[in-house]
Amino acid sequence: MSQPDAASLATATHGPRTVDSRDTALGDSAASASRKRPAKLSKRLAVLAMRRGSFAAFAVILVVFSITAPNFASLGNIANVFAQSAILGVLAFGLTIVIIGGGANVVSGGIDLSLAANLGLSAAVYATLLKTGHGDLVAVGATLLTGLAIGAGNGLAVVLLRLPPLLATVAMMNLVAGLELVLTQNTVVAAESPLLTALSGGGPFALPMLAWVLLAVSAVLVALLQYTPFGLRLYAVGEYPEAARASGIPVRPYVFGSYALSGVCAALASLCSAALFNGSTTGSGEMLLSVVAIAYLGVMFSRRLTPTISGSLLAALFIGFLINGFQLLNISSFWVNGVQGVLIIAVVAGTTALRRGRG
Fold this sequence. Notes:
Shape: globular
Largest sheet: none
Distance between the termini: 63 Å
Strand content: under 5%
Structural class: mainly alpha
Low-confidence stretches: 1-26, 29-33
Order of helices and strands: HHHHHHHHHHHHHH
Mean pLDDT: 85
Radius of gyration: 27 Å
Number of helices: 14
Oligomer: single chain
């Protein structure tokens, strides 16, 4: 007579074996993990493709324009692009800070569409004060206060009145543009001062002073946002507001602070504009599309596809070289606007799709 095996004895003693719920949970967990691995891999590949694609596009533009556009690759032209990029770059830094603090959602997240109008009014205040006999100290102080007041007004509208940032900053844009027209009577106000002479001149290593202003402002903001508690908390407020509140971070003051800093950036950009154009200018609102394009394109030059100052700096140079190349080839500026619009749509669509996949 054959001996019963262990399974037969266990069945006879304890009855048939049932499936433990823990076994089921472990099985489900393993299956879920196996499903997530391809999704994570595809997301990493998409992020890598977008980042490498942006750098590749930058390289292609430089090569194509170097071949087709006269004097594009000359040191003088490159220095000129750096100087001309200072205005748009510093403005885009302000928008980048607002996006960091409010989140990158283009509808409900951080946005400041009043930046270009802020530059126009701040430059008008600076030029008008110089024209009426005030010195650089008074004029610069009033300019910075003007930019700060406009940024603070946006922050109060968003934080206290709970207005959508898009609506609040559009309203501020129209208000500020109207004030500029009243102050300048829609004319150019010429300005001259030692500060403007210094800013419009040359600097070390054959780079214009405006280029050094762009690099200096970017370095200060990178240090502020990447290596201080304020910057790290601002990122937390923008990306995970509920978690930030739960950890005790006061969300509203940080959002307000992002708009205030944005206003200061607009005031600094207005000084660059006054140096480049020898006073105030009309039609500063035309810069808005380029500023938005730079801020959102800067996401593509960051490691994790998040808004950063260094990414916005590269994007400002990208747009600067693009505009310069089109000008050297005598191509209409309407094409530049079209390219910038396409870039905005592509970047927003791509980053939104990645966030949905992560969700």
